[in-house]
Amino acid sequence: MEKLLGLPIDASVHGAEVDQLITWLHVLMAVLAVGWGLYFLFVLWRFRAKKNPTASYEGAKGKFAKGLEVGVALVEAVLLVAFAVPAWAKWTQEIPEETDAVRIRVVAQQFAWNIHYPGADGVFGNTSPALVGPTNVIGLDNEDPFSHDDIVTINQLHLPVDKQILIGLSSLDVIHSFFLPQMRVKQDAVPGMRIPVQFKAKMTTPEGETWNIACAQLCGNSHYRMKGYYTIHSQADYEAWLRDNAPEPPAPAPPVEPVAADEPAADGDTAAADDHPAA
Ligand SMILES: [Cu+2]
């Protein structure tokens, strides 16, 4: 059925539940579309002008029509109460502990996805709206020692398979929507809020395939090109990616030669080293 609906491959643990709901909704809509379509054709024929020269002002009186209406409403209520509400509640209320999850921050921006990894120390460097600028979109504080190993990428999200992922989603400007089709994840990114997004991938991205991060909210005139890429790696490949993309550790300060107070420093001796790599 998923194939018939043209759904992308389901690569997440919770995806089957979402697909089940999508499937049942389509079954209901197909039954209604075909049913109402046939009824419309029947009415066109049954109440044609030739056979009914004068209009009836009384309308339908049978109980069947009312029963059908109530039936449809009941099926819709079951879909909502038995499928949609529990699935949504589980997703939004049962947030995994931060210590049990791979944590990443995503900051949406017109028209790109900024991805922030805490780095080897597992702690995000401080960020502040006051530090946001053209070269530091997430406002990372380079003075904060925890920021020195942080990895910041644009439109490139790399994740491990079989691990609980917890993304803190926010936006720099307008409302965007973070959409990972193969993960069955879609969540609005709202300025001023950090919204938790959780999922677990059950398979790695197949060789040669490209999985996109799409923006699912019309967020401006270049919304169509707000496209990122994400890759699900094996744990080993993920760790290798983190190592390969870790920023250079700050160079240790050169030993300082004691200089006699009355001796002028030679040219070039005072080159100040900036310990903080640019974000
Ligand atoms: Cu957008």
How many individual helices?
A: 4
- Relative helix content: 25-40%
**Could you give the order of strands across the largest sheet?**
3-2-1-5-8
Q: Mean pLDDT, rounded to whole units?
A: 87
CATH class of the largest domain: Mainly Beta
State the end-to-end distance: 46 Å
Q: Which molecules are bound besides the chains?
A: copper (II) ion
Structural class: alpha+beta
Descriptive overview:
By secondary structure, the protein is of the alpha+beta class. The protein folds into two domains: 2-93; 98-245, Sandwich (Immunoglobulin-like). The chain is 28% helix and 21% strand. It contains four helices and ten strands. The strands form two sheets. Strands 3-2-1-5-8 form a five-stranded mixed sheet, with no helix packed on it. It has a five-stranded mixed sheet with strand order 4-10-9-6-7. The longest helix is centred in the first third of the chain and has 32 residues, at 15-46. The chain starts with a helix and ends in a 34-residue tail after the last helix. Mean pLDDT is 87; it is low at 265-279. Copper (II) ion binds at residues 108, 176, 215, 217, 219, 223, 226.
